[in-house]
């Protein structure tokens, strides 16, 4: 069945404590090539049937109302992915 | 500065209670086009300098050791993204 991916990231101006914690841990395990980390969420919605424009609109609606908090997060992607694609 | 995206998703055989909760909530707000939802994580690592093969290898190492739990999660993507790309 086709899937729609929704990516949600903290807004750039919002502090991201999880990302900060990871950025602080990287050098402790010897990984020094990075200047910062942000942690967001990734959702895969499995579509029941074909991906119609209506279903895509439903996914966009879900992204902004249920899957993200628009005060602190941005929806950065709502996209159909192929079966073998990530 | 260039960024590397790491996507981490729960393994298919692992129960995903957050995804299940979202899948249950969708029809309650009138969104009936979906058969299931899985929730994972998305990380953006900002690279300090250029993306060398060494830095990419560091990102892969971080993905499997720090950013995911290999018992219950799969790293589904480690990829450089362009400045305007998500």
From TrEMBL, chains A, B:
<comment type="pathway">
    <text>Purine metabolism; IMP biosynthesis via de novo pathway; 5-amino-1-(5-phospho-D-ribosyl)imidazole from N(2)-formyl-N(1)-(5-phospho-D-ribosyl)glycinamide: step 1/2.</text>
</comment>
<dbReference type="InterPro" id="IPR036604">
    <property type="entry name" value="PurS-like_sf"/>
</dbReference>
<keyword id="KW-0658">Purine biosynthesis</keyword>
<keyword id="KW-0067">ATP-binding</keyword>
<comment type="function">
    <text>Part of the phosphoribosylformylglycinamidine synthase complex involved in the purines biosynthetic pathway. Catalyzes the ATP-dependent conversion of formylglycinamide ribonucleotide (FGAR) and glutamine to yield formylglycinamidine ribonucleotide (FGAM) and glutamate. The FGAM synthase complex is composed of three subunits. PurQ produces an ammonia molecule by converting glutamine to glutamate. PurL transfers the ammonia molecule to FGAR to form FGAM in an ATP-dependent manner.</text>
</comment>
<protein>
    <recommendedName>
        <fullName>Phosphoribosylformylglycinamidine synthase subunit PurS</fullName>
        <ecNumber>6.3.5.3</ecNumber>
    </recommendedName>
</protein>
<keyword id="KW-0547">Nucleotide-binding</keyword>
<dbReference type="GO" id="GO:0006189">
    <property type="term" value="P:'de novo' IMP biosynthetic process"/>
</dbReference>
<comment type="similarity">
    <text>Belongs to the PurS family.</text>
</comment>
<dbReference type="GO" id="GO:0005524">
    <property type="term" value="F:ATP binding"/>
</dbReference>
<dbReference type="GO" id="GO:0005737">
    <property type="term" value="C:cytoplasm"/>
</dbReference>
<dbReference type="Pfam" id="PF02700">
    <property type="entry name" value="PurS"/>
</dbReference>
<dbReference type="InterPro" id="IPR003850">
    <property type="entry name" value="PurS"/>
</dbReference>
<keyword id="KW-0436">Ligase</keyword>
<dbReference type="GO" id="GO:0004642">
    <property type="term" value="F:phosphoribosylformylglycinamidine synthase activity"/>
</dbReference>
<keyword id="KW-0963">Cytoplasm</keyword>
<comment type="subunit">
    <text>Part of the FGAM synthase complex composed of 1 PurL, 1 PurQ and 2 PurS subunits.</text>
</comment>
């Amino acid at each position: 069945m086709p899937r729609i991916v929704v990516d949600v990231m903290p807004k750039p101006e919002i502090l991201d404590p999880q990302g900060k914690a990871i950025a602080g841990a990287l050098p402790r395990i010897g990984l020094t090539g990075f200047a910062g980390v942000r942690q967001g969420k990734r959702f895969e919605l499995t579509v029941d049937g074909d991906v119609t424009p209506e279903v895509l609109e439903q996914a966009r609606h879900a992204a902004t109302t249920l899957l993200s908090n628009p005060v602190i997060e941005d929806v950065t992607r709502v996209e159909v992915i192929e079966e073998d694609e990530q």
